[in-house]
Amino acid sequence: MEVEDWAASSGGSSDSEATSPDSDNEDHCYAYGDIPKLQFRKDGSKARWNEDLGMAEIVSNKGRMWTTTGIVCGGKIYSFLEDTLFLAEIGALQLLDDDDKCIQLEDIYKKVAEGVGGTSWESFEVYRHLKSLGYIIKRHGVCWSMKRAKTVPASVEGESENGNKDKVSITEITQLFSKMRINEAKPIFDVYPPNSKFRKSSPGKPMFVLCISSGDPPTKKQIKDLEEQCEGIPMKFCYVEHGRVSFFSFNKIDLPVLP
Amino acid sequence: MGPRWKGKGSELKALANPISNSISDLQSSLIESNSQGILSGSTVLLATNPQQTDLLNQTCFGRPVITVDKPNQWFQFSLEEAFYLYHSLKCIKIVDGNHNIKTVNELWDYMVSKRASFPDFFKAYSHLRVKNWVVRSGCQYGVDFVAYRHHPSLVHSEYGVLVFSDGNGNRNGNDRLRVWSDFQCTLRLCGSVAKTLLILHVNRNGEDVICSSPSCLDGFSVDEQTITRWNPERCREDQAAVN
C-alpha cells in the first residue's frame, strides 16, 4: 500500500453539513434605485404600542401570520418588538401610538436602539432571517399563551401584589435581551419548524433553542450551562455580523473504537 | 457525516485489514530490530527495513525521507508520533546526536521545552490512536490533526481536529477559536474539504501545571465535540419534504 499524496486525497465533493455558506456573489453593491423596495399591503393589521409592556397589542389582525406570531394573553394578541418591526418593515402591520397616530419605521428602529422592547438590533436580524424562511419563533422563557389569572412560568420571576402578575412578568422578560454584559451567552429564541398547522395552544416542542453571545464565541463551560438550561431540547448558536447571520451546533460525540 | 470510502471495495479492504493488526505487526518488527530514532530539532529520524517501511505507510506514522541510502529507508516523525512509538507502543528507543539513549524523562522535558502544549497535543493524538484512528498532521488544512477511519487511500478524512487545553486559565484554552472570525475561517476550511471540525478538549483535571513527567498524562481526560454549521435554508427544504 502506498502512501497517498496529501493533496490528492482530499475529495472535492461536499456534504450537506459541510457546504460552505453564502457564495461570494451574494454581496451585491446596490446603486440607488436598485435596492429592492417592498410594497405596503392594502389590508395590513394594526397594533397599538404599549410603552409599559414594551409590546404591541394587536388591534385588528388580518392575515394568517397571527397564528404563528405574537403571544396570546387574556384573549388578546401581543407582539414583541421584533415581531412588530418585522411586520412593519414588510408593510404588513401599522403600529399606532396612544393617540392612534401611526408610528414611523424610523421611530420603531429607535425603540430597538433604545432597548425599550427588550430586543437588540442583532437579535432582530436573527429573527428576521429565520422568520423570512418560514420558521416560527418565540422568545425563550415565554409561553405562547397565558390566561390572565394564570401563574407565571417557573423560569420567570416577578411576583407582584396586584392582579397584573402576568403583565409584570412579560415586562421582566422584555428586559432580558436589551442589556447583555460582554461575553455573556444566553438563550434568546425558541425556534419551531415551518408548519401551516401550527397552533399556539399546542405548539409542541421547539426544534431548537437559539442562543447568542454578546462578544466572543462561547466557552465550553458556557455551552454546557446553556445545554442544561435547554433541558433536552437541541441548542444552536447564532452569530451576526454586518447583516450576515451564521448558525452553529456544538455536538458532544464519542468516536468509536475502530477494529 | 459518515465515512466516505474511496471507490468500490475500499470498505471491505479496510475491514479485512484492521489498523490495529498493522500497528501490532509494526510494533513487533521495530522491537525485533532494536530500532533507534535520532532526535533532531522537533523531529525523530528512523532508518527502516522494507517490512517496516510498508507498515509505517499502512498505519500513517511519519513521512518517508527520500535518500539514496540503500537498503535503508528513512522516515521522519513528529514529536507526537515519535513519543507514541516510544512511550505508548514501546517499540523504539531514541538517541541524540551523540549516540546517547534518552531516558523517558529526558525526552519528556525536551519535548515540553519545544512546545509547552506538547502534553495536551500528545494526549489528544494518543486518544485518537488508541481508538485505532489514523492521525496525520493537519497543517495543510489549518487544523492540528486530521483523522481518518483507515488508510487515506481507502477513505476520505472525516475530521479536522483542533486541540484545546481546557482549564489552563485561558477562556477557551490556548486562545484557540478566540474570536468569531477564527470560527468562520476554520469551519470554512474544514467545510471546503468536507471534514467535520472536531475539538478535543484536553482537561488536565488539576494535574501539576508544570507537568514534569509523562505520568501526569494519566490524569488527563479528553472530551470530544464537533462544531457544525447549520444552514436554515437547506434545513427548511428538508422540512418541507417531510411535512
TrEMBL record, chain A:
**Family classification:** Belongs to the SEN54 family.
Q: Which organism is it from?
A: Deinandra increscens subsp. villosa
Alphabetically list the UniProt keywords.
tRNA processing
Q: Can you give the residue ranges of the tRNA-splicing endonuclease subunit Sen54 N-terminal domain?
A: 36-95
Keyword tRNA processing appears in the UniProt entry = yes
The segment annotated Disordered runs over: 1-28
Please identify the protein, giving its name as recorded. tRNA-splicing endonuclease subunit Sen54 N-terminal domain-containing protein
Q: Which GO terms describe its cellular component?
A: tRNA-intron endonuclease complex
Family annotation (Pfam families):
tRNA_int_end_N2
**InterPro entries from the xrefs?**
tRNA_splic_suSen54 (IPR024337), tRNA_splic_suSen54_N (IPR024336)
From TrEMBL, chain B:
According to its UniProt entry, one GO biological process term is:
tRNA-type intron splice site recognition and cleavage
Q: What would be one Gene Ontology cellular-component term for the protein? A: cytoplasm
Q: Which InterPro entries match?
A: tRNA_endonuc-like_dom_sf (IPR011856), tRNA_intron_Endo_cat-like_sf (IPR036167), tRNA_intron_Endonuc_cat-like (IPR006677), tRNA_intron_Endonuc_N (IPR006678), tRNA_splic (IPR006676)
Domain called tRNA intron endonuclease catalytic: residue spans: 122-207
- As recorded in UniProt, its EC number(s) are 4.6.1.16
Which SUPFAM superfamilies does its entry note? tRNA-intron endonuclease catalytic domain-like
Catalysed reaction per UniProt? pretRNA = a 3'-half-tRNA molecule with a 5'-OH end + a 5'-half-tRNA molecule with a 2',3'-cyclic phosphate end + an intron with a 2',3'-cyclic phosphate and a 5'-hydroxyl terminus
Which superkingdom does the taxonomy of this entry point to?
Answer: Eukaryota
Q: Which GO terms describe its molecular function?
A: nucleic acid binding; tRNA-intron lyase activity
Ranges where the tRNA intron endonuclease N-terminal domain occurs: 36-102
Family from the record: Belongs to the tRNA-intron endonuclease family.
Q: What is this protein called?
A: tRNA-intron lyase
Organism, per UniProt?
A: Deinandra increscens subsp. villosa
> Mind giving the lineage of the organism this protein is from?
Eukaryota, Viridiplantae, Streptophyta, Embryophyta, Tracheophyta
